[in-house]
């Protein structure tokens, strides 16, 4: 699934939201609507100054407030309207949501281990990663297809959703998606058009390497 129309030079920037209190607590957010911390808002402002230099044509974001507020910082600098889409929300993870990493290991250790092995797992009875890609990737491609030649789309979303979307757009089999490392808060990955489809140009860019907190949220 690449959706490219060869040689148009388009770019997709997939930008993870800023820090939340649940990230700091290593608490699984999933589709729970958690706000940015003050530091998360500052991260978004710093990152927005860098991303504005790319002169994006379109900004689309998850409608959860941590992504929406992050996108708002870029919109303020670029004067672009943000299109919000619930299909870009983080993975719904049922009973895992609200639990810390340690609590998930203690209560759902076998399920967690199977997921890390690349098996299709409904974490907490929620969505499969392929189902997340099924809803998010078409939204990204639809907006990318509307870009002008050499245009740039910024997608503001969540760690897990971004990883599955990248995996789908690169044509990787689902059990390989975990091989894409997580994104730190307010860092981004860049896909560009190649002769055979989308290519990963940058991953977890934006800062010096930092610990990844609460990757799937």
Keywords:
alpha/beta; 217 residues; single chain; globular; six-stranded mixed beta sheet; 16% strand
Give a written overview of the molecule:
Strands 3-2-4-1-5-6 form a six-stranded mixed sheet, with helices on both faces. It has helices at residues 21-24, 38-52, 65-78, 101-116, 129-145, 159-170; strands at residues 11-16, 58-61, 82-84, 152-157, 188-194, 197-205. It contains six helices and six strands; from the N terminus they run βααβαβααβαββ. Residues 1-5 have low confidence and may be disordered. The protein is globular. 36% of the residues lie in helices and 16% in strands. A hairpin with a 2-residue loop joins β5 (188-194) and β6.
Topology of this protein?
Elements: E1 11-16, H1 21-24, H2 38-52, E2 58-61, H3 65-78, E3 82-84, H4 101-116, H5 129-145, E4 152-157, H6 159-170, E5 188-194, E6 197-205
Parallel strand pairs: 1-4, 2-3, 2-4
Antiparallel strand pairs: 1-5, 5-6
Helix pairs in contact: 2-3, 5-6
Can you give me a brief rundown of this structure?
By secondary structure, the protein is of the alpha/beta class. The chain has 6 helices and 6 strands.
Sketch the topology as an H/E string, one letter per element.
EHHEHEHHEHEE
Q: What is the C-alpha radius of gyration, as a whole number of Å?
A: 16 Å
What general outline do the C-alpha atoms trace?
A: globular
Helix content: 25-40%
Q: Treating each run of at least 4 consecutive H or I residues as one helix, how many helices?
A: 6
Q: What strand order characterises the main sheet?
A: 3-2-4-1-5-6
Mean pLDDT: 92
Main beta-sheet annotation: 6 strands, mixed
Structural class: alpha/beta
Question: What's the N-to-C terminus distance?
Answer: 24 Å
Count the beta strands: 6
Which ranges are low-confidence, i.e. pLDDT below 50, for 5 or more consecutive residues?
1-5
| Strand percentage | 15-25%
